[in-house]
Each structure stands twice: as structure tokens, then as C-alpha cells.
Amino acid sequence: MWTFAGFAIFILVVIFNNSCREKSLFIFRELDLLPITGGQRKKWIGGIITMLYFIVIFIIINGFVFHWLFYNR
Are 39 and 46 in contact (CB under 8 A)? Predict the structure, then answer.
């Protein structure tokens, strides 16, 4: 699942970067959350890191929820 999520993000970044470079740089720059990335100003790579962070959090939370649903009957 981790590999698929990372691969999906990579594909999205490549597609956005090739099709509409200015919009993709703007979108990724706006997605950058400075408390998560620890930077002084927003950069497009910070948006990618922020997306990966939220995907990891989503996978971990869903793992706990599914474990609780299936093993606590």
C-alpha cells in the first residue's frame, strides 16, 4: 500500500508538472504547510512532502480502524 501511494503521488506530480507547469507549482506551493515541512517559506517540494505526510496518516488511521472492526467482535 505504501508503494502504491508513493507511486501514485509520483505519477500525479509528473503529469501535473508536464501538462501545466505553472499551475502545478502554484498548487504544490499552496499545499505546503510550514509546521510540517519546517521551512521558512513555501516551496513546491513542501507541498509534495505534505501530501505524502497526509497519505501516511490516512493509511495508519485506516489500519487501526480496520483492525478494530475485524478483531473486536
Answer: yes
